[in-house]
Structure prediction request, 522 residues.
Amino acid sequence: MVTGSCYLLEACGKRIIIDCGLRQGRDDNDYPNDILSFDPRTIDAVVVTHAHIDHSGRIPLLKARGFSGSIYATRLTGELLQIMLRDSAFIQQSEAKYENRKGKRAGKVPVEPLYTIEDVNEALKDLISMNYGEKQTIFNGIVLSFTDAGHLLGSASAELLLTEDGISKKIVFSGDIGNLNQPIVRDPQLIPSADYVVMESTYGDEDHKPVESYTETLAELIDDTFRGGGNVIIPSFAVGRTQELLYFIREIKERGLVKSFPDFPVYVDSPLANEATRIYSGNLDGYVDTDAEEILRGGGEMFSFAGLRLSMTTDDSKALNEDSTPKIIISASGMCEAGRIRHHLKHNLWRPECTIIFVGYQAEGTLGRLLTDGIKKVKLFGEQINVAARIVKLNGMSAHADRSGLIRWISAYNPRPANVFVVHGEAEVSEGFTDLLNSMGIKAHTPYMDEVYDLAADRIIQEGTPPMPSGTAAARSATIYEKLLAAGKTLLKVIEQNKGGSNRDLRSFTEQIQALIDKWER
Prediction:
């Protein structure tokens, strides 16, 4: 799916997870994050392509449920995981605390957080950092290396060379493939060969609209908003996109492109984004493009300028909405699903003089997607809010390759892979991109949740379950029934995983299941 990346590779007697991310939006509704379709105790290693939470956010859950192997990532991915997973754990614990405070009054059973800070700390002890291009034998017959994917500092495609019974095959997991000509990060590095490729397809159905200059486009939007006395609100991913925005705004300030209010203040209202900016200002040798290298060599600051202010506390955040001075507020989360951005939307969406600028992908089912699709009213904190602000989506600023970029990346393989598995996209997009690759003579296939593919035999040995289309009442009903069936299958797996548990726990589990049967049996 487009969030919650997680793949299981079995080779040479080992089981390796490539990415283990949190699901967001519709993906979270269809497949809750606390459900794993494998036993973490049987996993020998985890490989992380990059630090974004939809690729890494369930790694502490693996640890909490018995995973004891090593976690492999690039050096900067490892540094970013230190802050991102702790921030995620804080959110999990805070949300559980909030739900339990409400639930106690309603007599509900207490809920547990998905994982805790302690689980994160334990998982990070197993982190092994690697450099781009470094080859490491992680098990007999399995050699891992990383190639720069150009999506985020430290992002990588994972290359695994597998040797069984004297036969060697290479499989590449693309991770998220970056857009061309982004600031700070390098363009995606091309990989010349692979037998199999697992490839993302987020924008496999469209090319980004060309933007002559991100700097000028952003400056024009800011200038126009400030002339009307409004605020510019930018929902932004804390890691990667926020730093790119600061890079652009620094240039806007240096060139004096905002005439109506040259000394405008910029607030980064996200403790996580502020921590990430600190890492982006550290040792970046081997990770940044030539323009960024020149700035750093000259002793310059990529993300610092007059008027930049960092909001750390909740009180700092609240004060922004009590101040009438026109300003830019950059706040997480990028899809508006949680965090301080929802408060800023509540205070600015109803104001026609304000502008909300979206600068990243908005998954189906998220508040960000609803706003970019043109919804007229939204509910925030129990209050109906009229959407009167200008909503702008800057697709050209995407950190994901578009259709042409994806074709450029896969076309570099010579000879062509034996099979390309098209993943990480909304169903119709992945299927369409698969059809495009096949029409180009590149054998491709769209797998679905829980599909199992035998690479040696080159065939599917367990069919996956395609997601149901949304929109119609019949589809919604079918989707709910599919969820029920999926939950039943997962329950069987959970039962199998509890083999060997204490009699007391098994008895309690049995009684709970029997109570459900008694209630629903017809």
In short: Confidence is low (pLDDT under 50) at residues 471-478.
